[in-house]
Amino acid sequence: GGPLHVEVNRNYVPTLYAVEKRGALYGFFASDKIEPYVIVCVISDRGRVFRLTRTQLDDLVTAIGEFKTRFGITHETYHYTGLAEREETDQFVRGGGGSVRAKSHSSHFHLKIRIATAMYVEAVAALRLVPLDRMRADLEPVRYNYSREASAWPATRAALEADVLP
User: Fold this and answer.
1) Is residue 132 within 8 Å of 20, Cβ to Cβ?
2) Residue whose C-alpha is closest to residue 43's, from 70, 68, 15, 67
3) Could you tell me the mean pLDDT of each successive run of 10 residues in the chain, 166 residues long?
4) pTM, 2 dp
């Protein structure tokens, strides 16, 4: 058989935390893919942000600290798709190399925070009904989502700094 795409209906993906800082909203959402990540997005009065300003990065750092404190998260790792990779993917799709629906990630800024599986299952109640451990062992897409490369905060912060608007 062909590849299997598994995701949680977006109607059931909860917002775990949201905070407004200096005109931008920092939203922390459970992933709609079956993966133990929180997706952090930044929304301004013009919509989802493509590239952060210095002020937005500073506020993002504060918001992440607040999120971690609220949920007792320590020793987390991060997965960040940098600006250059997002732009390359967009060019590939615009050039007819694939569909927007099949893109592997959003064009907009987003940061993934790796969380404990138990926290993810608690946040996405529908997952309590599925044999997640067996799925992780048997389904390649779920294995991939669990094994996605993640970095410690210092490396992630450096990558974020590199992409800030000049």
Assistant:
1) no
2) 15
3) 59 85 96 88 94 97 98 94 84 64 68 91 83 76 73 96 94
4) 0.81
